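To assess whether the prediction recovers the assembly geometry, we first specified each molecular entity separately, as shown.
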Amino acid sequence: MSGSLPGRRLSPLLACLGLLCVWQVAALVLKTDSFPTALDAIRAIPSILGDREALLNILDSLRRMTVGLVLAALVSIPLGLMMGRSRAVASFFNPLLMVVYPVPKAALMPVIMLWLGVGDVSKTLVIFLGVSIPIVYHSFQGGKAVEEKMLWSGAAMGLSAPQRMVRIVLPAALPEILTGCRTGLVLALITMVTSEMIARQNGAGNILFNALDMAQYDTVFAMIIIIGALGIVFDAAFETLRGSLVRWSEPQFDMPLSFS
Amino acid sequence: MSVVPLRPGVQAEPSSGHAQPVAMIEIDRVSQMFETSGRRGHLALSDISLSIEDGAFVSILGPSGCGKSTLLYIVGGFVMPTAGVARVKGRAIAGPGPDRGPVFQEFALFPWKNVLGNVMYGLRQQGVTRGEAEAQSRRLIEMVGLKGYETFYPKELSGGMKQRVAIARTLAYRPEVLLMDEPFGALDAHTRTRLQNDLLNIWERDRKTVLFVTHSVDEAVFLSDKVVVMTRSPGRIKEVVEIDLPRPRRRADLLLDPHYQKYVVDIEKLIDDVLDDELHP
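The predicted structure of the complete assembly is given in tokenized form:
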């Protein structure tokens, strides 16, 4: 444990401020149109958030991101856990995942657009694909690591195989699953923006790249700040949720009492 | 050994048709072969036959690798024997069931449940109402000496406390047989002794059938009615030693008892023989 509680609360804030300072100085030194100062970018934020159209666009993006993320979790967690518990399932899906893994999901976007159009379905599908791999992988690792004896104990109590999957493997692997979901959450935000970069129709990414086309660089950087801030807020919210779900596995619980 | 009366309502296997009381556990010519990376499979257990009466405390003792845990897993229904059959109350074992409760060296507690949640788990699974399950579990937690720790999570407990929880969790759903797989093997000497004493005290109350795997001769003699000494490669029964010491047993008295000492020395010699045979076949 390093630093007091207020210190730990303050340090991320200080890091953000430091970054903005470096930005401000760098922009003043470089003096190019395409690199507005941090203050200019921050000044452009209210006009974006005050614009009804822009807000609806951002909400559209977040809706697609949420749908993609939730669908990915619903498919990937059971798949990963089953791979973790069955060698046959793992050896069937592993090569498939290894093929999909290195492909940049946004690179599939043009093809998917040809099939499914430029609408919500294509973008949500790309988010789904981008998010699935880390969730599958972590669920797989988590499922594999579940102690056999724990499952035997459950079997002796009369839990059937499907019950053991839901009531023992799932909770036991939950810390690892949530680590995957946290990575997935950030990836969802990234693929959300890139999908809108390619399918330029609406959304947060569209605002960003339209502004870029029109050389409104303060708006471009304001959008980058907004997207970055969304990332921080989502991550912090998710960490709070994760903390309350798997408190039992946190390191501060790792202090056995001295009593036989 | 006492003769076990046939209780009403307990039906023996209809095909057996004999009038004799059925043993609680019957291991009948069981062999277990494991696949290995080598050309030949590894014969972990070879032609084991053993009969255990209701209410007996039986230890299986042997060097590591003699298949003693495998034998226990077969009775638990976690492992299916390659040959032979194991029966509980005359019925062939086809899988795990709440009539046989395991306690493992690794504790295998559910880390996301607190002490109370772990102990209640089996009762809730069997449809006992929450209130009733909680009341029973609290009594058991008190019995294993963990009153006041109900809301602690396994990670917060020492090894000895975890094993107390594991024992309470298994006793909770009232198995007829306790299957204990080196339960005190991971504990320090002091904790181990305390748990042995407490286990005997708990066992004296209702004398469940216990199958207890260990590699400690003292532990086996102190706890058991019968000690089954095994050899390894392949795992066979070398000898079954009846421990005729009065109960309830107190460790302090037994350590001075020449009968106890003789049992320990005799069994240690048996095990030395086993190891010598391996060196000079």
